[in-house]
Amino acid sequence: MSSTERNAKGHERSRPKVRSHTQAAPSQRTRAADPARLVAFEVLRAVSGEDAYANLVLPKSIRKHRLDKRDAGFATELAYGALRGQGTYDAILARCVDRPLEKLDPAVLDALRIGAHQLLAMRVPAHAALDQTVGLARAVIGAGPSALINAVLRKVAARDLGEWTALLTEGDTDAIRRAAIEQSHPEWIVRALRQSLVAHGRSVEEINDLLRADNDAPVVNLVALPGLGDLDEARAAGAVDGELVADSALFSAGDVGRLESVRAGTTRVQDAGSQLVARALAELDLDGVTPDEDGVEKWLDMCAGPGGKAALLAALAHEKGAVILANEPAPHRAQLVRQALDAVPGETWNVRTGDGRTVAEDYPETFDRILVDAPCTGLGALRRRPESRWRRQPSDVGELGSLQRELLLSAVDAVKPGGVVAYVTCSPHPAETKAVVADVLRQRNDLELLDAGAALDAVSLTGSLGAGHESTAQLWPHVHQTDAMFLALVRRKI
């Protein structure tokens, strides 16, 4: 058939071109929201609009929309990927929108981020990414915004991610700005992580490896509570044994909540880095500590909520005939701690609801071992909590610093002579790690640092993690495939 036809006057005219999938007539366009994309959109809206945490919102939304395993995996990748890539995607979108992004309806911006991630970082055909994202917008935002979203995403689709980042960084010789765009981190965090690498004895040249590790989807880490749980069910469901720490496994076979052992609390989701620091404290030899009359060691988890490390410590305490007090200031989080500890025999543990800074007033020189898992910026867990990188501000570091020092000072007053305090943060920032410990050591003449790197090696399956530096230890996502956990072991001299 000819591609032309004649009009009434006999002149040839072009036949209308067949519409592409993304240019479909209004009657042909997708009008319903795909459930998996709707889940991802709901997660982004809760995160940006309600300051929610993605890891709490996502499972609820998946269950609400009854996604099967495949769609749940797609929704998870889309939601977390859009959150991780937000900095890069926003820079790209700013080139494609005719107004500042802050002038857009937040729901429209979240839809654009979802579309950008599909187009630039997922194996989704461009026509499907466009059609489904526009259909989602039409269903949940409105017809008007959907037209804008369609136009913007068509501009985004004109280049691949490499071409976009090259365009955005063209001519820029500032390594920090380039890394911020290419690896989707705020500039201040790139700068802080560079400083952190150097402070903990590593090369600044590792920064791009570290930032890329932050953007990798982490595998779910499991721990079977020693003496109480096992990994048989998890292995049968596809888990493989962890290579860093005993009683651990890596699970990538879908919803871990379907495991009965997880529901019972004897197997828990916990990063291997958290497992290592808890075991390092529990297994440390305490020489010269005067035992109580009952001969029972007393342990304290000073900042216990929501209870993950407390549960592992309690199980280890139960094995060793020790007892543990779990302290948490927020009543609702204290209840979460009780729930986490429920799998451990009740004679082993107790929960105190109160400020950790006052523990020493009630329990002076009482405990053999104390864990201070201090509130911090969480810069070491950006791969698991990608929204944190966009919420945190440089001022948070200073504001948390005074609390961290006060908690550590309270702990060294509550520990017995000869006892040990493990100061832990899920952040490698030197202002939250080495500086806090150094300041407390300067204020007291009865404290000394033990070799935290050796303590981690002693409880690791590898026997040589290489995490130690100047008596403290720092784990890294790009080196150990864990969160960036910091550990200092402070001993109170006898």
From TrEMBL:
S-adenosyl-L-methionine binds at C303, A304, G305, P306, G307, G308, K309, E328, D355, D373. Residues 21-30 have a biased composition (Polar residues). GO terms for biological process: regulation of DNA-templated transcription; RNA methylation. The active site is at C426. Coiled coil: none annotated. Residues 193-493 form the SAM-dependent MTase RsmB/NOP-type domain. Pfam families: Methyltr_RsmB-F, NusB. Residues 1-15 have a biased composition (Basic and acidic residues). One of its GO terms (molecular function) is RNA methyltransferase activity. Keywords: Methyltransferase, RNA-binding, S-adenosyl-L-methionine, Transferase. It comes from the Bacteria. Residues 1-31 are annotated as: Disordered. Belongs to the class I-like SAM-binding methyltransferase superfamily. RsmB/NOP family. This is rRNA small subunit methyltransferase B. It comes from Arthrobacter caoxuetaonis. The lineage of its organism: Bacteria, Bacillati, Actinomycetota, Actinomycetes, Micrococcales.
